[in-house]
Amino acid sequence: MIFEKRRSREKEIRKSAILKAARKLFFERGFKSVTVESIAKKAELSKGAVYLYFKSKDEIYSQILLNDIDKFHEKVAGLCKNGGSASDMLSRLSAVYVDFFLKDRELFRILITFMLHANHSNLPEDLQTHIIKSTNQTVDIIEKVFQYGIDNGEFSSSLNVRKIRNALWGFLNGVVSLYIFISAESRREELIRSTITAGLDVFIEGLKRN
Fold first, then answer.
1. So what's the pLDDT on residue 209?
2. Which CATH number is 155's domain given?
3. Better-scored residue on pLDDT, 114 or 43
4. Is the distance from CB of 179 to CB of 192 less than 8 angstroms?
């Protein structure tokens, strides 16, 4: 029994080391430039050892993505528990979204790529389903915020919650996509934050007047 526990703990330590090494390499070099061999070297393991835990580089990256999506969801869920108006919640959520992905632009790139091509990925079905489920949890929180705003009279009762949820999600992803890969480094953060703030103000005003 003790041997099995030790063996299980050692496996988790190796798996964690692989993910930690891979994450650092991915965010330093980008997805295409990293190989399983380079990940193994960074983790101080053999290439074969890496394949004992992951079937491919795509699976490693997706596991990193899944871990970060879960962390992001925890942050968003915590913000909504702080109370306040629905408008305040949306502003806080948007700020956290920007902060999270400005730190790791490569993470944002792989998330968008996954959302656009989820049906064509080569990931194991259980991992793909888990990523989609985790992403949808955050989107569901946005929907609950809108519903909260409608229920307390802050937003118009005639709104289609599902549609405005999707509209906001698309807006956030669109603005970050617009600037994160094409704007000058010196102005990138300011442009993203100011555009989202201005757009969100208009969006919220429309929800109240609808």
1. 73
2. 1.10.357.10
3. 43
4. yes
